[in-house]
Write a structure and sequence with these properties.
alpha/beta; Rossmann fold; 3 domains; single chain; three-stranded antiparallel beta sheet
């Protein structure tokens, strides 16, 4: 008999009289090759299938690795020995932020509150992503990530991570993930984005992956605080779950200190944060702050725990937190292509007082709009009928044969848009002739339906004698063809 196998057999025999948990503990310590060569023997002794044994042993290995490596990976933070005043602590964090990072006051306020939430992940129900963005390089994104890494709980920096490494890291350590250069890899990785998104709400903060040779479904937690940094905008699903922190370059008259000059501060601040967050943990668990009425839906989910922390701190922080929420939410009210399209179509119907429009004419009006994306919608090419139909289909709007004057063509009726305008643009629809310019839709000025002077613009539309249909005078398009509105 092979000597190694002989020893293994003796070990298994010696364990016959021991409890099953102890045997699993023992098997989890064996080298992988030795375990695989003799797995069937172990399974027979325990009277279970080899796949079931794999599951038990792998689970024990993960538990052991997590407990053994967490202390090696992250510095132990000893709580500050004295009680800590919350407002003074946040003021001190803000002062440190101002020393090293260029950003406006609302961003600094939010950074301080977000640092605190990383120490309270066990008592909050939502973890907003700290989404650090800038229009160009050298705006301080990495500097802010480094600053966060000095103060958050269990910081784990990475500038490139796969989806499998991400959920395993969270399951193993429950760290605060600090992901840099997100624009270079995260934007195009659907699996990675899915894991980041899933970690936003406690109830859904898990993923299921098939593990092992028998592809056993296994549940992994993805509940952890995450900060990501990159140039430009992230995917809309990430941004909607984020507090968006926009940075800029330093002005000539602005200056910051090097991070290494804050060693003394970075040593004591985590101790103070640990003490204060531990003291307010029970209070925060059941605390429901009043939110500004303008903060709704997912924005409310993002800001509620941060505002609750500010309320626990007291001083001027409750007011500052609500002001920051309004300012940062206001500046992030950007629209999807779908909502921007609805807005521009509403503008066309408004400005021309139409109740029907041919598809070709609507496209010409859209593609002629200044400061709109439609003229270069598809890799430099204009928005076409197929793309228009595809976007509008999401809102249950379809083109159909319509009649304007004596012409029958594919087009759209205002009545088909009424429900979507009401739901998504927040302005009431009355009729084609009484509808007024919306004050809130899409946060943009009322535009002319087209910048092309070929379309009649000044005359009131008059009904003709043909079934009361309204028509606009014939004009020549840019290619010389005649058309009717």
């Amino acid at each position: 008999m092979n000597k190694s196998l002989e020893l293994v057999t003796k070990d298994v025999t010696a364990l016959d009289m021991q409890s099953e948990p102890k045997m699993i503990d023992y098997l989890a310590t064996l080298p992988d090759l030795e375990y695989e060569q003799n797995k069937k023997k172990y399974a027979e002794k325990l009277k279970i299938a080899p796949s079931a044994l794999d599951k038990l042993v792998n689970k024990k290995k993960r538990q052991t690795e997590g407990s053994n490596s967490s202390n090696c990976t992250f510095k132990e933070v000893i709580q500050y020995p004295e009680p800590v005043d919350g407002k003074e602590l946040l003021n001190r964090i803000e002062t440190a932020c101002q020393r090293f990072v260029i950003c406006d006051k609302s961003t600094r306020t939010t950074v301080c509150l977000w640092i605190a939430i990383t120490w309270l992940t066990d008592v909050v129900d939502n973890l907003p992503i700290a989404n650090i963005t800038a229009p160009e390089k050298n705006c301080g994104k990495t500097t802010l990530l480094n600053f966060l890494g000095k103060l958050v709980k269990k910081p784990l920096p990475t500038n490139n991570i796969t989806s499998s490494a991400l959920f395993r890291s969270i399951e193993k350590w429950q760290p605060t993930l600090l992901i840099d250069e997100a624009d270079s890899f995260a934007d195009d990785d659907d699996s990675l984005r899915g894991i980041i998104n899933a970690g936003h709400t406690r109830d859904s903060a898990f993923v299921i992956r098939c593990m092992g040779d028998d592809h056993e479904p296994t549940k992994f937690s993805v509940w952890s605080a995450k900060a990501i940094a990159g140039i430009g905008n992230r995917a809309s699903t990430i941004e909607s779950r984020s507090i968006n922190l926009k940075l800029r370059r330093k002005k000539p008259n602005e200056s910051t200190e090097r991070m290494k000059k804050g060693k003394a501060e970075f040593k004591v601040l985590p101790q103070m944060i640990s003490r204060w967050t531990n003291d307010i943990r029970d209070k925060l668990k059941h605390f429901e702050p009043d939110l500004p009425p303008a903060i709704q839906n997912r924005d409310a989910d993002n800001w509620e725990p941060l505002i609750a922390i500010a309320d626990c701190a007291g001083g001027d922080w409750p007011e500052r937190a609500r002001k920051a929420a309004l300012e940062l939410t206001q500046c992030e009210q950007s629209l999807s292509f779908g909502l921007e399209l609805l807005t521009d179509i509403e503008t066309i119907f408004d400005s021309k007082r139409l109740d029907k429009i041919f598809t070709a004419v609507l496209l010409e009006a859209l593609n002629s709009m200044e400061d709109a994306p439609w003229a270069t919608y598809s890799r430099g090419r204009m928005l076409n009928a197929r793309s228009l139909a595809r976007i509008l289909k999401k809102y249950s709007i379809k083109s159909k044969e319509i009649r304007i004057g004596i012409m029958h063509k594919k087009g759209y009726a205002l009545s088909d848009f009424t429900s979507s305008f009401d739901c998504y643009l927040f302005t009431p629809i009355s009729s084609a002739t009484t509808r007024q310019t919306s004050t809130g839709k899409a946060y943009k000025d009322n535009l002319s339906a087209t910048t092309n002077n070929n379309v009649a613009d000044d005359k009131t539309l008059q009904p003709n004698s043909d079934n009361g249909c309204r028509v606009v005078a014939d004009k020549k398009g840019g290619n010389g063809d005649e058309y009717d509105w």
